[in-house]
Amino acid sequence: MKKIGIVGGTGYTGVELMRLLARHGGVEIAAITSRGEAGTPVSELYPNLRGALDIGFTTPDEADLAACDLVFFATPNGIAMNQAPNLLAQGVKVIDLAADYRIKDLSVWSQWYGLTHASPDWVERAVYGMPELYRDEIRGAQLVANPGCHVTAVTLGLLPLMGQAWIDHTRLIADSKSGTSGAGRKAEVPMLMAESGESFKAYAVNGHRHQPETVQTLTAVATRAVGLTFVPHLVPMVRGIEASLYVPLTAEPPMDIQRLFEDYYADERFVDVMPQGSHPETRSVRGNNLCRMAVFRPQGGDMLVISSVIDNLVKGAAGQAVQNMNLMLGFPENQGLDLIALSP
Amino acid sequence: MKKIGIVGGTGYTGVELMRLLARHGGVEIAAITSRGEAGTPVSELYPNLRGALDIGFTTPDEADLAACDLVFFATPNGIAMNQAPNLLAQGVKVIDLAADYRIKDLSVWSQWYGLTHASPDWVERAVYGMPELYRDEIRGAQLVANPGCHVTAVTLGLLPLMGQAWIDHTRLIADSKSGTSGAGRKAEVPMLMAESGESFKAYAVNGHRHQPETVQTLTAVATRAVGLTFVPHLVPMVRGIEASLYVPLTAEPPMDIQRLFEDYYADERFVDVMPQGSHPETRSVRGNNLCRMAVFRPQGGDMLVISSVIDNLVKGAAGQAVQNMNLMLGFPENQGLDLIALSP
Amino acid sequence: MKKIGIVGGTGYTGVELMRLLARHGGVEIAAITSRGEAGTPVSELYPNLRGALDIGFTTPDEADLAACDLVFFATPNGIAMNQAPNLLAQGVKVIDLAADYRIKDLSVWSQWYGLTHASPDWVERAVYGMPELYRDEIRGAQLVANPGCHVTAVTLGLLPLMGQAWIDHTRLIADSKSGTSGAGRKAEVPMLMAESGESFKAYAVNGHRHQPETVQTLTAVATRAVGLTFVPHLVPMVRGIEASLYVPLTAEPPMDIQRLFEDYYADERFVDVMPQGSHPETRSVRGNNLCRMAVFRPQGGDMLVISSVIDNLVKGAAGQAVQNMNLMLGFPENQGLDLIALSP
Amino acid sequence: MKKIGIVGGTGYTGVELMRLLARHGGVEIAAITSRGEAGTPVSELYPNLRGALDIGFTTPDEADLAACDLVFFATPNGIAMNQAPNLLAQGVKVIDLAADYRIKDLSVWSQWYGLTHASPDWVERAVYGMPELYRDEIRGAQLVANPGCHVTAVTLGLLPLMGQAWIDHTRLIADSKSGTSGAGRKAEVPMLMAESGESFKAYAVNGHRHQPETVQTLTAVATRAVGLTFVPHLVPMVRGIEASLYVPLTAEPPMDIQRLFEDYYADERFVDVMPQGSHPETRSVRGNNLCRMAVFRPQGGDMLVISSVIDNLVKGAAGQAVQNMNLMLGFPENQGLDLIALSP
């Protein structure tokens, strides 16, 4: 049994990590920290865990995190960059579910996150935790930066097209829609049900942190400049992200697009290219770690459309983190993650 | 008091017409027809009308529609083209809320609707019922084709840019999202709450009837070829449409875009260009006839984004129809339509 | 035009008051106060009011509330009891939408609200603002205590039975369900959409402030001891209350129960006793001031069931307050309140 | 590996059975029948099963159900009573998720279901599939009648009190609320999202089939006459039932009620008596087989209140059926059922 620590376990990624790890079979949760909730059983804050996980929150000081094999940071941005290096120095493996280690260009990171980075050397050494791209590096990594939720849906949907000579890499569009759990468990007026229920809107149209993160990966894969317009929206539901991706064609593709996608992801357990004409629903991945997608070329025109869905708390956060943990600790990649989506 | 008839009043556009007309002040509903519900008081089918409208459904045969000043067709596609000409011939004014008279090119219409048109001459004479474009023609029209719901949100959001030399008219994208009432009051499995609740998806990505309708109008205004990718989505809510519109810039616009939009709609009572940086919510127009929009140029780049919201049953259907009726019958354009949106 | 002030207009009852008053026709909103939002146009906080109400929030000090004919307190509990007396002393009429003046027994009030009352003399003089019971007193009142939301649905549903010899007044049960807007526009974790969406629960089962308020009125009408078990629930929707009321029969009623209810409310504009066998839906009163109800005697047994629905923000708050205002200022009771419910 | 058949697998109980059985580990699904969908892969109808279950629907005739160890009937009422006896005669074990074998009194059954029973002898031999009451009988049963969804939440919440001398068995009240998936996957207007979304109502107040089913069990346990008023409600969500149960006290209970409940269910894996003062949420059991409940005595008065929650498709249908299957086939009772609820 590997020993696992969770720092900042009171949010939605925290409870989702616990849901997945409690039934993983190869790990035990040694410590979950929260200054505010220290002493509280996790099942009091999250009754869905009653009977499944008999552990309480502890202060970071009491938790012997250095004795863990791997520690998840499910903290707000700016925490892991201060606290992770100490654990890393003691040989503990770390997965940060926040954004501290996602962006390699420190000036870009500072611009979007409004902070000076506290451990820039670890930014360089961190591996971006998207197994479909960096599986081998993740296996050997000591520090993994778990991707953002919108980022995951958008990046996976665009990857097979990156670098193709017949698309316009400078005019990509990602129209992404997320359930409200993506905003986390923070008391904020706009996230009240009375504010976000039975309504729909775009937000952060002028700029969202997931845009530079996505562009970084797409650029690396395409090996050329990428222009991406990214517009997030808030859906009156709890879980799920659907990203509609628009890719202009500049020439006739020399192959079948459906086939291109199927081949690209043929060996990926957690990416499902659906049959031609399918319309992926977010509920088809509710609670599980899959990204399902479908690719379209409406009326045979010069625009490709990809619809890509994930559960923002699973493949978009805790599930992908467990997938990374499996790789880092030598478990089968799908251990603990083969849950079937809850539908209806 | 003008006498109004409604053919096919059992659907959502029917009940919404009744909600608006019952408090209009200048009209009386002389007849509401429904073969299936003949004899039933409308307030039995729609309890929200109890105490507000004391009338029952009648068969089309019993209803003396020819005695009406104006008749709304709130019927499925393919009905008005057969039944309206007889009324028109008797001098009755008609507003068709379905698609029978929206598309001027009969071959395009037949291709998308799968029918041969029964009254092609009236297609030619029909005025497209978008007051912001065709106010004067509507005033004098005998037959008005009320625009589609997605179409209204998309077209109004793009109009100020049509014909501008500095946008790429061939790569327009409309990512539109609608509440489930847009599908009408028909017993269909995909529209069950257990199917469409707490989930989100795109639909009809390969082609939707609102695409050619939108293109027809945009082309006429732009006076050049328009390429539009239109992708509708289903939102787990009842009412509202948000369309995110993407317009590539080909050169630096010679004017302030915000100002362009504000000037374009300065005299329009039912279009609200919101202040820079606003994010229109569908609930801000719930139950009223406004289209609210905001225009963005993310990071000063080469893509404009417009977010446009309407209530699909009001500005997207019954409200716009009443606006057209007001024009056709000589009422103030906003009579009966100055309701404030219900929020929260 | 009567001059109206609103103290604490940033919450949901505030915006709902503005929605109704902006189209009332007989009043003008002279001032809306909010310390936190002073200087902000109300339409910035509530975009649904854009174009309908051109006014901004002011500090209580700047607002010349004493020059108003009537002032609404849409403040948290404990504010009006301190601030209203000064206005009342200057002859201003006051309607308190909070609970400061609802409960006559000061010790009961203190027990439930945890405060010592600051203006006990005004508690005595205040009229309980339920027009169906106290219409004449409200007409002459200077201070009206607007009833609670659950209270309104429960009380109106039980009134016709109070004092009847053939019911058990000691075992009344009110199982009430409210949308989340009932909790107000406060940033609280349990009211996040991610917490209250797609879920259902009871709350405050061991005791809720609306229980003593309801009992006070029922006791007064029944002129005997009343025992009421009141259990509120949170519904994953924004607006609406449904109360299912259970009344044990102790003897065969000597009259038709349906008829009893219809007669009781025959002259009430805002209470709708629906036909036998109807099941009132909250959406049938969405946005309007009606209480609709139906009465049942399942299988002819010894338990009556009443299902009573209101919009918690209208008849349960702002709408009933405007109804009271109409009475106090001599307007027709339904002025500004004849809106038709939004359905679907 | 035991061979399992599912008759009528296209509904929500069907897909939920598949979700649970596909990860059970001790069974294989040999056949799923559907006349309408024969030839269709189940993953086409239910994309959440893509990659998890590679099987298609077959006609009942093609399916060799007699070769199965156990067959689930997930069919509408009135099917199993005709088709199950043939399988039973060949030694196949059967679990009926419909109501054909739930009610022992054939005249009561006929009155509520409007049918004459086709296999009354099997009604007598059927065991009612509530493991908390009839575990041993289920182990030896050939035919099990799986309880109704509301029935399960209500019965489990009342069981510990049945037969107690200090409650009034004749005035029990169950105010039960269900998500819309309880109505099944049938195309019906009232279950459209546009009809049931953002609204709340009671239904079938004058009589619902789950009332006599509940009374039958409670009477048997209490060994005295039971009077139950049962009122179901429709919640604007997909999954979940909360039942608020009201039990009048006739004398001071001689024991601690909380303790009584905890002791009663001490050995039950799928019933969770929550700590005093808890308010069970339906999401705390979403997707899992638990019934969580809390018991209250508001203000120390003479009415007990129990709030009991289940997932209507799991403990209220497919999950309880798998629990029964485990007992009938000799698996550990919780095999395949230890999933953690999805929350948020």
Q: What's this, in brief?
A:
With 344 residues, chain A is of the alpha/beta class. Chain A is built from eleven helices and 14 strands.
Description of the structure:
The structure is a homotetramer of 344-residue chains. Chain A is α/β, with parallel strands linked by helices and 344 residues long. Chain A is 28% helix and 20% strand. The first copy, chain A, has two domains: 2-125, 3-Layer(aba) Sandwich (Rossmann fold), CATH 3.40.50; 150-312, Dihydrodipicolinate Reductase, domain 2 (2-Layer Sandwich). Chain A has helices spanning 12-21, 42-45, 80-89, 106-113, 120-125, 131-139, 149-158, 193-196, 210-222, 257-264, 314-329; strands spanning 2-7, 27-33, 57-58, 70-73, 93-96, 127-128, 143-145, 172-178, 201-202, 228-234, 241-248, 271-273, 291-296, 303-310. In chain A, the strands form two sheets. In chain A, strands 3-2-1-4-5-7-6 form a seven-stranded parallel β-sheet, sandwiched between helices. Chain A has a seven-stranded mixed β-sheet with strand order 9-10-8-11-14-13-12. The model of chain A has no long low-confidence stretch (mean pLDDT 97). Chains A and B meet through strand 8, strand 9, strand 10, strand 11 and strand 14 of A and strand 8, strand 9, strand 10, strand 11 and strand 14 of B.
